[in-house]
Amino acid sequence: MKIVVKFGGSSLASAEQFKKVADIIHADPHRRFVVPSAPGKRFDGDTKVTDMLYKCYAEAEAGKNFDKQLKAIEERYNEIIKGLSLKLSLKEQFETIKKIAEKESCVIVGRCADYALSDNPDCINVFIHADLDVRIKNVSRNLNITENKARDIINKTDKQRASYYNYYTSKKWGDSKSYNLSLDAGKLGTDNCVEMILKFRELMDAMK
After folding, report:
1. Residues contacting residue 202 through CB under 8 Å, at least 6 positions apart
2. Which one of 5, 73, 85, 188 is most buried, counting C-beta atoms within 10 A?
3. What is the rounded CA–CA span in Å between residue 134 and residue 130?
4. Residue 2 gets which letter from DSSP?
5. Does the reported pTM lie above 0.90?
6. β-sheet bridge partners, residue 184
7. Element (H or E) spanning 38, and its range?
8. pLDDT, tens digit, for every residue of 1-24?
9. What is the rounded average pLDDT of the residues 123-137?
10. Are 14 and 78 in contact (CB under 8 A)?
């Protein structure tokens, strides 16, 4: 039996909390899949990293300097890294985020992006799906595994995605009301999905 465990918020707010989570995971060898989310509040009056990210995005979207907000997020993660005695650096990742936000549009896959960018009038939310049989054949071929194994991977991944999305947005993952477009890649194919998204963007721009 394999167990999926999820941690986030205050349970990952500091290095000490990370250590407690590690103990919980290691206490049961069946806990094989771990789903983490952003660190929460360390104490009363503290700010969740998710809210810090929203504020950073709002500043960037408004064309304002967001160095202070981004630095605060970096410091939060570096505090955890130092407390765990890890040899990691977030400098490159944060520099990439900063450069993208400053100069161009971007594509965000998952991560509750439709919810996070719900106030952005230029954001296009797309849900790409396909029948299970089509997905099984694609995963089986791309990963060179049996169709039964592919089915297991798809079912587990879908459950994790739905759990993550539903928890953080209080909405239902896959609900058409959350998206501007819902495309069946099994019928359209990847290239045609791309063409439809680009055409939608073109039409939206023409209506401004």
Report:
1. none
2. 73
3. 6
4. -
5. no
6. 129
7. strand 31-39
8. 778 888 888 888 898 998 998 899
9. 92
10. no
